[in-house]
Amino acid sequence: MSLLGLKRIINIHHDLSPERSTPSPALGQPPSPLAPKRPPLQAKMSQDCVPSIKPLSSLKDFANTPLKQPAKKLDKGKAARAPATPERDLVKKHAVPRARKVVIPRSPVSTPRRSTVEVVIPTPRHFAPLRDVGLATSSRYRDAPTATRVEDITEHFERVTIRDTKKPKRARAVQPPKFSAIDTLLSSCLTATLLPFGDVFTSEAFGSVLPGGRTSTPVIRKIGEASYSEVFTVASSTDDEAIVVKIIPLLGDKPVASTVELPDCSEVADVVREVETTKRMSSVPGGGFGNFLGAFVVHGCYPQLLLQAWDEFDEESEWKSLRPDVFGESQQYAVVALSNGGQDLEGYKFEASRGWVQAASAFWQVADALGRAEKWTGFEHRDLHEGQILVSAVPPSTPPQPITNYLDSSATAVRATIIDFGLSRLEIPGHGSTSTPLPDEVYEGVGNQWDVYRAMRDRIESADDAASDAWTAFHPITNVLWLHYLARRLLRSTPTLRKPREVKRSASSVPKKGALAEKEVIRARSEAAWHMLVAVEAALGVALSVRDNARVAARKLQQFASAEEFAEWGRQQGWIA
Q1: Helices marked H in 462-502 — which ranges?
Q2: Distance (Å) of CA 347 to CA 306, 317, 350, 420, 432
């Protein structure tokens, strides 16, 4: 290249030379003024040429210079481009996933929602043949050898199949079966399966407890009700002996939504306890307690036959309760079958001629049964009001005679039975003692019955051996409290019993014979029974007041710590044998 050509190149590209650094001024000297900014490079050729060369007058002359090859004519308004090399695709074209992201304003006054797009461009993957290349592993496998040959990987993949094979399941440990509360109740029943409510009274299992056997047309009558149950009698026919059936609605595991008020239901665990307690008490030597026949668990709506009996009882009863037709198809019930002990003492109508004898006999039968149960199973009833004592008439076997033993049902023509052990305390072999705390509302009632509950609480919770849970201990004094209540109830609150009229007798009166003599015996027995109950009520009242009356205690009167002691005192008096 000639010197002239080199000079032109230098002059044309002089503005692209690197900027020279300006030396900093010395300390104390004013900074030198900035050099004027050079105007941008114009499309003008340099005129610094040697005299022998003709100056360029236009760009047309520049096209024929020795340093520049002839160029193509450019269109006006278009920039010149250097010849481009063919484009090569380094990465195969593919769809780019674009995740859409929504920005939610932080408050109502912030900017409205806007959408932004996040573009993720994956890095091209470069595949190279694997020849003695170490494979990357996680940190926990760094100690293992990492060199893997292609032949090993190929052999591994040859063993991979796409067949659908079932993964072998792990053997599970055998778990003991879980029993629910209903299962526990069913284990105490005659049949371990749930029965439809409408079919239970015609089933073979229920027919086994009926005195007349299985029947397709049972005779059902309602005879009473309690807070948590309805009480019916069921017989095979009108001529057969009936049994008593208690129907107890059960609380389910889950609450049931209902728009109407439902009757009270019982916890399944409480019913299990009642069934086991009733079984135990029906085995007390000497009897005197309800005889347990069997239990069933049923489900469904109340049968129409029971509802009809319920309506007939409701028309004659002064108490109005909820009709059980409000229960649905999923409701479960416990059906407890018992022997028929007769009418409860509250509604029993004593005979006019022998009423006091019957009342006295019922009282001593209850006292004797309590005494035997105390000794045999550590029993306390704790709720022995007149509704828990059943009385049934018994045909007398002999003509009226003076009573020497009020426990003789054939002489007194009456039999008493104790029922309902929901609040009772007793001991069951192999299970220890069982008891149920009294609900708090019983301490708030007004009347003689409610006074007994409060007296029981005072006696039990202030006992010398009272533990943290004193109600589980044995306190037979509670039975004495209820016997005192029963004696007062018979003497003062029995509508069909009136104080017998005393007849004055003289020594010279002629003995009567025949019917007159029989009436005289009946009158004398009634007077004796009434006087006996008066003496009993007084003795119990004094004995129970000794604890709080030092003057009475100093007189060394008879005290009764249990029904067993009281029954023994009655034998000493010659009233029972």
Answers
A1: 477-492
A2: 22, 11, 10, 17, 36
Contacts of 308 (CB under 8 A, 6+ apart): none
404 contacts 390 by C-beta, under 8 angstroms: no
Instruction: Report the C-alpha gap between 78 and 100 in whole angstroms.
Output: 40
14: left (phi over 0), alpha (psi -120 to 50) or beta: alpha
From 240, 231, 246, select the one nearest 213 (Cα to Cα).
240
Say which residues have a Cβ less than 8 Å from residue 326's Cβ, sequence separation at least 6: 258, 260, 261, 262, 263
Q: Identify which of 484, 577, 566, 567 has the alpha carbon closest to the alpha carbon of residue 533.
A: 484
8 Å CB contact between 378 and 370: no
Locate 202 and state its tokens: 């015609």
* Assigned token pair, 503: 């007849």
Q: What pLDDT shows up at residue 317?
A: 82
Say how many Å lie between the first and final Cα of the chain, rounded. 155
And the tokens for 408? 């003789």
Handedness of CA 207, 210, 215, 219 (dihedral sign): negative
Residue numbers of the chain with a pLDDT score lower than 50: 3-10, 12-17, 50, 101-117, 119-120, 127, 130-138, 140-141, 144, 146, 174, 550, 552-554
* Chain segment 108-163, per-residue pLDDT in tens: 444 444 444 454 455 555 545 544 444 444 454 455 454 556 666 677 666 666 66
CB of 542 within 8 A of CB of 557? yes
Tokens of 461: 């919770």
Burial class (CB in 10 A: 0-12, 13-18, 19+), 436: middle
Could you give the CA distance from residue 212 to residue 321 in angstroms, rounded to a whole number? 32
Residue tagged 């037979």 (tokens)? 476
Q: Which H, E and C letters describe 176-238, residue by residue?
A: CCCCCHHHHHHHCCCCCCCEEHHHHHHCHHHHCCCCCCCCCCCEEEEEEECCCCEEEEEECCC
Angle of helix 268-281 versus helix 355-377 axis, rounded to 10: 100
Would you state the structure tokens that stand for residue 195, as one six-digit string? Answer: 């029965």
Q: Which amino acid is at 63?
A: A
> Could you tell me which residues come within 8 angstroms of residue 116 by beta carbon, excluding any fewer than 6 positions away?
101, 103
Task: Return the ∠ at Cα 418 (arms to 478 and 276), rounded to 5°.
Answer: 90
Question: Alpha-carbon Rg of the chain, whole angstroms?
Answer: 54
Cα torsion for 343, 345, 349, 354, to the nearest 10°? 110
> Which residue(s) pair with 389 in the sheet?
418
DSSP state of 425: B
Which domains can be identified in the chain, with CATH numbers? 181-340 (3.30.200.20), 344-502+512-572 (1.10.510.10)
Q: What is this structure's pTM?
A: 0.66
Amino acid at 126: H
